[in-house]
Amino acid sequence: MAVDERDTKEPTSSLGKLSRRSFLSHMGAAGVATAATAVTPLVVSSAIAETQERTVPDAQAIPGTMPVTLKVNGQSYSVQIDPRATLLDTLRETLHLTGTKKGCDHGQCGACTVHINGRRVNSCLTFAGMQQNVEIITIEGLGQPGHLHPMQEAFVAHDGFQCGYCTSGQIMSAVAMVKEPWGTGDSDVKEAMSGNICRCGAYPNIVAAVQAVRRMA
Question: Domain 2Fe-2S ferredoxin-type: where (predicted)?
Fold first, then answer.
């Protein structure tokens, strides 16, 4: 069947004899160019904003904060904190000492126990801004792998932990408890450690670990 030569040719417009295919190609190119022109200022402005953000000094004070100097594990830290910040949040979020755990955040579980001037304290109930002239010890300052505190070694030997979340608070409380005037029986240890909750129920092993250290003293 013969093909009509007129069927193979693209129709042309009356203006400059521009074919439909050429017209659509030109229109597509114009649309891309317009879009690129609109996007370019956004990309440039975003890059400028990012550069400006990176050049802001890290030490710039945030409005409403206060400068404090805390002595933690023998090292001094000068930081800007919210006056309402607890010692727990400051240790974890500002100083990045995350060994101290946030449990109930209401002073009821003992997971956040630290030492202030040798005394055990719930750091979630303590304002950081009021601790500038004291010695603060966290679990990181008590012992490290390869050089554990005797209480840490006892917890390992007696399997005094399961999930481990409460363990740092348990150990910090136990270390302070050994120096306090409590009786020698297991019931005395249970009473002294009653402010530290173990949701896994490892209490017999915790008592055994504490008693092992007390016998060594």
Answer: 66-142
